[in-house]
Amino acid sequence: MGLAEIIAWAVMAFAAGGVFWFIAGALRNRRRADRELARLEPLLERLGADRAGAWVAPGTLRISIGKGRSAIARSTVVLLLEPREVGVLWLINRWKGRRDLLVIRCSLRRAPQRWAELFRSTGTIGAQVRSALAKSGKPLTSERSFPNELSGLGERGSDALIDRLWEIWASRCRFVLRVGARPTEPELVVAIALHDDVDWPAIASAVTETAETIAGDFARR
């Protein structure tokens, strides 16, 4: 067998391996999504009614909830799975510490008075939150440290709201990547790391309690 044939067989083997990896990764993500959707039912039910869901990209499932409850007007829940279909991207994400996560964006009936964030101090999300606050041009509080590598930071005068966010999420802090109240939208953003032992009924209660807190009178005192 000549060199050209060896190279041709190697290319075909590599291509076949890539196709197999893509199919296996897509199937694994689909199974993961089905399992998480079943577990997410208490959260989705708590957020409201009139749901519509669709895959918007490989590994990205978006669920819109048009009729919210209590302080929440409407919500978008996005399931972000690791790019298991593409081996190189999956390895890069693993190296950067990125895992499966859930992002909940709630449009509030009333805007919070001030911008306040509770977030994982390390990693991409922490860097994004600090950057967004720095670019806002608003005077900020001093960054505060909480257990489980969480930090609190916000617009000046938001210390009491940050304390309240910690009170609500303290018992679920292991799963929290971000809890943010942003007046400009106005919205509540919650990012949760997907672990097998996430207590979704407890997360649902914390999300609605947070929405009621930041959209209610507490943020105006």
Provide an overview of this structure.
The protein contains six helices and nine strands; from the N terminus they run H-H-E-E-E-H-E-E-H-E-E-H-E-E-H. It has one domain (3-220). Residues 217-221 have low confidence and may be disordered. A hairpin with a 3-residue loop joins strand 2 (60-68) and strand 3 (72-80). The protein is globular. The longest helix is centred in the N-terminal third of the chain and has 37 residues, at 3-39. Strands 1-2-3-4-9-8-5-7-6 form a nine-stranded antiparallel beta sheet, with helices on both faces. It has helices spanning 3-39, 41-47, 87-95, 123-135, 159-169, 200-215, and strands spanning 48-57, 60-68, 72-80, 101-108, 116-120, 144-146, 150-154, 176-182, 187-193. The protein is of the alpha+beta class and 221 residues long. The N and C termini lie far apart (81 Å).
Overall mean confidence score, pLDDT: 83
How many whole angstroms does the radius of gyration measure? 21 Å
Give the beta-strand count. 9
Please state the structural category: alpha+beta
Query: How far is it from the N-terminal to the C-terminal residue, by CA?
Result: 81 Å
Task: Summarize the main sheet.
Answer: 9 strands, antiparallel
- Number of domains in the coordinates? 1
The percentage helix is 40-55%
Beta-strand residue fraction:
25-35%
